[in-house]
Amino acid sequence: MPFLLWCAAECSLCVARLAVLMIAQRAASERRATPTDLYILLGLAWAATVGYGTFISLVGGDWVVAALSCLSAAAMVGGISFRNFGAPRFAGAMIVLALGPCCAAAPFTGEPIFFITFLQIPFYLAAMSAAGFRLNKLLVATMRAERENAFRAHHDSLTGLMNRAGLAAAMEARPENRMALFYLDLDGFKAVNDTYGHAAGDTLLQGVADRLRNGVGRPASIARLGGDEFVILTDAAEHPALLAFAERVAAQISVPYVLRFDQTAVIGVSIGLALEPQHGSDLASLLSAADAALYEAKAAGKARCIVASA
Fold first, then answer.
1. Is-catalytic flag, 37?
2. Is the pTM of this model over 0.85?
């Protein structure tokens, strides 16, 4: 009967875990929450059934069955450690549940030499757990490096805003709304650089980025394309609303900046505006049209926003 119960528990857990995996896969494909907690509990229950089988095999006195059971448990522990190294404490709990009953069964086997399991299994548990934690550390370091590399590939290192590649990715990811692209070029930035040095210029650029990041006031993708050129990509609207938005951005940028050593700098901004679909439907076309409008704004006396010609 104990072995029949073990078989029934193993089969039931196998079916349950498979069902939960299928449900989780469907939920993940639909971007819904997955039953991860339930799967973890079923994993612990499965490890407990492995330990239960080892215990009844050892207590039963049939050493062929006991050898097979212990060999299976030990083999499963290796898989537990390396399949679950992303969650080393979970793997350790499963190992304790699977192999711990060997120690619990030792007093009932009638074989004093079997008490050696009290020495072997803790060391085995420690070694496998340590391997899991080391693998987990490598996994975390790799994920962090990948995340940092992905961030650097799509973001400007000085300001933390998106770069051209990040802006292109943001444009592809946006919904099917029509877009407006504001191309900004700072007025008076070169004079700040020449007067106070490049370090002060970098501080000024970071200040501009912070104001754009925190003060745009509507959903937008913000990028620095290099030098003192910035881009704001947002949903299109009527011309008066977009021009009012540009005026608010210009007003925020024009507030004096405190640089290093209490140095103060005042700059302005010229803006070129391109709209989808009038001026194109891809990033290159919109940038080209907005850049041409920006040069018109510069030529007209700076500190203004001009909409690109059709």
1. no
2. no
